[in-house]
């Protein structure tokens, strides 16, 4: 696989994630789309690391995986808290939680 193909695939996955974030209002779908964007960045980092032999790019990809796992844990906790307080997990109604 060439680097251009890997970067093009990464761009396609990232754009799909951005479109999902902009179009959908369901919080679970938003998290899935954000994870798609993280995975697209990881794919780009690993493709660059393979093409150039840089170990640093693989370390950055590992860091992005750790950040994505933390983001999912915190995000799902927030969604559960919103659902428990409002019995609805609509993103448009989150502003009512301002205290």
Model description:
- The protein is mainly alpha-helical and 99 residues long.
- It has a single domain, classed as Helix Hairpins (Orthogonal Bundle), CATH 1.10.287.
- Helices cover 80% and strands 0% of the residues.
- Helix 1 (3-23) runs antiparallel to helix 2 (27-52) and helix 2 runs antiparallel to helix 3.
- The N and C termini lie far apart (52 Å).
- The model has no long low-confidence stretch (mean pLDDT 84).
**Mean of all residue-level pLDDT scores:** 84
Give the beta-strand count: 0
- The helix tally amounts to 3
What about the largest sheet? none
Radius of gyration: 17 Å
Helix content: over 70%
Uncertain segments? none
Shape estimate: elongated
- Architecture per CATH nomenclature, i.e. the level-2 architecture: Orthogonal Bundle
From the N-terminal CA to the C-terminal CA, the straight-line distance is 52 Å
Q: Which fold name fills CATH's third level, the topology?
A: Helix Hairpins
Layout of helices and strands:
Layout: H1 3-23, H2 27-52, H3 55-86
In short:
The protein has 99 residues and is an all-alpha fold. Helix content is 80%, strand content 0%. α1 (3-23) packs antiparallel against α2 and α2 packs antiparallel against α3.
List keywords for this structure.
Helix Hairpins, elongated, mainly alpha, 99 residues
């Amino acid at each position: 696989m060439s680097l251009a193909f890997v970067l093009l695939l990464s761009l396609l996955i990232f754009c799909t994630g951005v479109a999902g974030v902009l179009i959908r209002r369901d919080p679970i779908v938003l998290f899935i789309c954000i994870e798609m964007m993280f995975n697209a960045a990881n794919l780009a980092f690993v493709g660059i690391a393979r093409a150039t032999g840089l170990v640093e790019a693989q370390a950055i990809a590992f860091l992005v995986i750790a950040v994505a796992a933390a983001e999912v844990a915190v995000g799902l906790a927030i969604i559960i808290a919103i659902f428990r307080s409002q019995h609805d997990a609509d993103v448009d109604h989150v502003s009512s939680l301002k205290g």
